[in-house]
């Protein structure tokens, strides 16, 4: 029996341009992209970087975990060439060791105090942070009394402000609070309690996501707006950045290049 190749050619014809398009798409995704020059001068370091020591399966949700000092030492040895400061988020799980390790590397610390619903836990965090500020006065640059606790709805603005004032009365370093910028504008009385305002601006996570090419301008606009809302207060960007991977949110696309 004889077979004709012509029907097979016809059947395969639509797949040729599709396959070619797939190859071109993968080539484009893998092609090198020229990054813009760093805004930092030669030898200049980042002012500060948020730091959490958790690796692999380590998680802050495991309350029995205690990070080994050697792990923190390894992290800070890697970070010291690129930043003069790290910001932490709590004192528990071994993070009370960061200031001591950082001092050996010549790195400053913006020491976090984790605040939430648990009063006993809040008290332990406060006492430990106050002690660290007294023990490492040349290293602890400031204390952050709470991180996004208003966003999570775990403390009222009045209770938070009262804790901030208590902490300020016990230390010689500046005390701040950190939250998404909208929650500062909604709880302006908290700004009266802090020495400076620490805001989080994450364009990818905005209610109306911001595309990567507009993200830097968005950050500058929001910072300017918050500074106008709280005249006389220094504004610190406590969190800012762009995800390297994840789902697309409208026009906001995570990627290493973005």
What is the succession of H and E elements? HHEHEHEHEHHEHHEHE
Q: Which ranges are low-confidence, i.e. pLDDT below 50, for 5 or more consecutive residues?
A: none
Principal-axis shape equals globular
Helix content: 40-55%
Profile the largest sheet.
7 strands, parallel
> Structural class given helices, strands, pairing?
alpha/beta
What does this structure look like?
It is a single chain. The chain contains 10 helices and 7 strands. Helix 3 (69-79) packs across helix 4 (98-105). With 258 residues, the protein is of the alpha/beta class. A 7-stranded parallel β-sheet has the order 1-2-3-4-5-6-7. Helix 5 (119-135) links the parallel strand 3 and strand 4 (140-147).
């Amino acid at each position: 029996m004889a077979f004709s190749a012509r029907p097979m050619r016809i059947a395969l014809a639509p797949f040729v341009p599709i396959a070619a398009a797939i190859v071109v798409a993968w080539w484009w995704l893998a092609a090198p992209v020229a990054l813009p020059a760093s805004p930092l001068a030669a030898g200049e370091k980042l002012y500060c970087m948020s730091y959490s020591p958790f690796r692999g399966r380590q998680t802050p949700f495991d309350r029995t975990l205690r990070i080994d000092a050697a792990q923190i030492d390894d992290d800070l040895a890697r970070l010291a060439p690129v930043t003069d400061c790290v910001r932490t988020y709590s004192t528990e799980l071994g993070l009370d060791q960061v200031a001591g390790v950082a001092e050996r590397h010549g790195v400053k610390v913006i020491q976090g105090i984790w605040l939430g619903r648990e009063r006993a836990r809040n008290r332990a965090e406060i006492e430990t942070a106050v002690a660290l500020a007294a023990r490492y006065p040349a290293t602890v640059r400031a204390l952050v009394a709470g991180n996004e606790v208003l966003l999570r709805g775990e403390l009222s603005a009045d209770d938070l402000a009262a804790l901030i004032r208590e902490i300020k009365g016990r230390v010689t370093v500046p005390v701040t609070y950190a939250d998404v910028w909208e929650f500062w504008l909604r709880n302006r009385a908290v700004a009266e309690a802090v020495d400076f305002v620490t805001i989080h601006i994450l364009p990818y996570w905005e209610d109306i996501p911001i595309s990567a090419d507009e993200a830097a301008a968005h950050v500058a606009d929001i910072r300017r707006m918050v500074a106008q809302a709280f005249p006389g207060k220094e504004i610190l960007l406590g969190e800012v950045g762009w995800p390297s991977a994840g789902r697309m949110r409208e026009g906001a696309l995570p990627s290493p290049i973005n």
